[in-house]
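Morning run. Coffee first, then this:
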Amino acid sequence: MGGVAFDFRLWGFRWLFRSIPFGGFAHAAHRDIRWFRLRDTLFILGGPASNLMILFAAQAALPLDATFDATSFSGFVPFRTLLVANAMLLIYSLWPHRAQTNRGKLPNDGLLLWQTWRRSKSEIEQRPYAFYLCEAQECRDMKQSEEAQRWVEEGLKRFPRNWMLEMMRAANLLELKQYREARRLDQQCVLLDREARETGKLGVLNV
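And here it is:
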């Protein structure tokens, strides 16, 4: 919540902290589909597991709240507050729904788990396209359009005619000032979008 306070890369990950440290999201995409459901499940459960560990730690520290009673901070109960806050976050994350974020409405952990285990084999086979899309978007965020284009081209070799990758490709070409090719791809994306809707595969293409 709030404005961006820190944004940096460390250990191969991008870290973004906002001014109000409440809640958060972790984004990842698989490059291959080996053990897809298991790997996705373990990744998704990382957030709720963190809340659960903090909850247990706060519960163990509850007696320390009494140390404030004889001070000017009487009534201050930080560990009880921490326990209640993480209990609420745990319930919120596991109750399936779509949460409003700065990237639009996204499925929470509970809904992601539901979706992961209901995906068909054909859907899972298409999911790695998101890896290339995410890498390209990271490059775009760092104003590295040529590197972003390299990721998109690599993804399209593996997933030809993927609507999302083609859209990213067109956006990159605009930034690279290749306007004619960008316009051609934009028109092609309209046809791919229509094709995806008619065949019912739009859900496979969306992140």
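Confidence is low (pLDDT under 50) at residues 202-207. Good start to the day.
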